[in-house]
Amino acid sequence: MKRVHSMLTRRRTLYLVGGVAGGLTLHACTQQPQAESAPDAAPAADGAAAASPSEMVKASNGSTLWIGYSPLYVAIEKGFFREGGLDLEHKVFSSTGESNAALAAGRIESINNVTSEAVAFAAKGQDFRIVQIADSSQGGDGILARNSIADITDFKGKEIAVEIGSVSHFFLLQVLQEAGLSGEDVTITNVTPDAAAAAYSSGRVDIAVTYSPFLKQSNDAQPDGRIIYDSSKMPTAIMDVYMFSTQFVEEQPEATQAFVNGIFRAREFLQTNADEANAIAGKRLELAPEEVASELKGVGLTSPEDNIKLMSDTSSDTYLGKHMESLAQFLKGQNQIPEAPTLEQLSTLIDPTFVKAAAV
User: pLDDT tens digit string along 243-302?
Assistant: First the structure.
């Protein structure tokens, strides 16, 4: 499963604001090419008429590779963006910090990121708009523990293998907090997610935090233990969003709409033409189609209806702004951002206009 490593690098590191993290060491699962690009050059699919070249708006989207972005890869290959007049180039970055920097510098117009990264980005004063929610982890992230460890409260005083500063680390801290513990109550061994799983499988550690496919592989390999907690119990803890520069959204609303429409259409294509869609995503992710299908079981690709509710229902406990406010307070408490953006500030970054229009 070596080729899976590149697919999972979206989760490698939580983007820490410069200097605030106190020198945490960030590790990479593997190296990726620097900002490789794959232009959206496919013809319009299913006989639909694409916009003429003169009508096309060119834009670049950047991110690390991740299974939850499968609709993006499908939309590019099938020409769904071009049908709406958007000529999208996707650039692959080796870390989320690099893609964040590219958006901040105006080198690209859009990035895909986890909400914790979006909050940290906002805390640096960056101006952007979240136009769509891509997915949420629904069991793809988890914690492995020996059978002698009855519950999360038993983690106190124990050694845990997890990558410091990563989304896995952030997930662990949330789980500990839920159980009345903190990061101060455990000893962290800083290793990459695949190494954490290997250490658990071999018996070198009793607790490890990792994600699919390492989570299931390690659980199957080690009979003395189980997945004691996974993200299905905290389904809004880890969410991915599509973010655009505010300037692009304001100056190119039709192209922004074409992006959102294309993602939703590709999501539907993944359901109705699974074999073809999984093969397309697999080419980008360096996975076999059946591996793509398996990995997709651990993420929930967010529907248009759920997008609307999460992004616009401010009275709901599941409102994205409240989720991000909670993340902001949490990250501030963990000294990973200097100040926590307020709910009002974060809400201005969420633009449900396009998901609402797509659902009409």
Answer: 999 999 999 999 999 999 999 999 999 999 999 999 999 999 888 999 899 889 889 999
Place of tokens 């940290």: 120
- Contact (Cβ atoms closer than 8 angstroms) between residue 65 and residue 7: yes
Lowest-confidence pick of 65-69, 220-224, 260-264, 276-280: 65-69
* Domains of the chain with CATH codes: 4-138+238-358 (3.40.190.10), 141-233 (3.40.190.10)
Give the whole-angstrom CA distance, residue 310 versus residue 308.
Answer: 6
Per-residue tokens: 11: 């989760």
Distance CA 247, CA 67 (A): 28
Pick the closest to residue 75 from 271, 244, 277 (CA basis). 277
CA angle 165, 167, 170 (to 5 degrees): 70
Q: Which is nearest to 163 in space by CA: 189, 202, 200, 197?
A: 189
Round the CA-based radius of gyration of the chain to a whole number and report it.
20
The 8-class DSSP code of residue 39 comes to: E
In 152-249 the beta strands, taken as DSSP E runs, fall at 159-162, 187-190, 207-211, 226-230, 239-245
Cβ partners under 8 Å of residue 352, min gap 6: 307, 308, 311, 312
Distances (CA, A) of 63 to 117, 118, 307: 12, 13, 21
Q: Quick check: 165 and 14 in contact, CB under 8 A?
A: yes
